[in-house]
Amino acid sequence: MFSPGNRWRDSSILVLLVAALGVLGWWFSAPLSAVLDAAGDIRTWIISFGPLAPMAYVAFYAAQILIAPLPGSFLSVLGAYLFGFGSGLVLSLLGVSLGVMLALLIGRKLGRPALERFFDRSDLIRWERKLRLRSPLIWFVLFLFPMPDLVIYVAGMGTTPLRWLAPAILLARGIGILVGSSVGTATAHLPPSLVLLQWLLLLALGGLAYRFQRPLRYLLLTNLRRTRRIVRSLFRTPLSTPAE
User: Can you give the pTM of this predicted structure?
Assistant: First the structure.
């Protein structure tokens, strides 16, 4: 990227980039403070519902899985920001478990004819052809990356037993919720300038993960399969007894 013969030019570019980030952080610090203050007011308003606030959050989290148009990408961040890390994490896990299980059961019991009333038929057929999978390990790796909630219905329409399929999807989604809850907790406690830097880094890392998701999936799946073979061989190999 940088050539050895242009060190002064490369150093100048780095200095300019650092300066630009500093100016960007200073420029957005006041608007970001206003946004965080507004979010604090929303938090106070939701918590004012008392014991119904956690139930409403869980129901909304489940609904955004069942009803695709509802926004749900940053719900785990919001949950941790509203209820704290521990409570937000538990509520988000409850919401995603409820939504995923209902979507899988709908896909398994009703099938494509019923789902075509709510989703585009061509989208359902396209995902069915792409995802002729039986291995829970593949489903786990697949849902580690952003996927439309329609894929959960398609997963339920398959032949993988739900006792293996549901934990694989929930474990993958749970890892994302853990990351989101950590981000939401940091957003609630960090100063505005660091919050801005945090989101810039997350957007950059998320863009790279989305851009290179295919090789990342392949690499992760290959290593998981290798680890599974090693573990199975350890349990299958009989223990040798010392010679008399």
Answer: 0.69
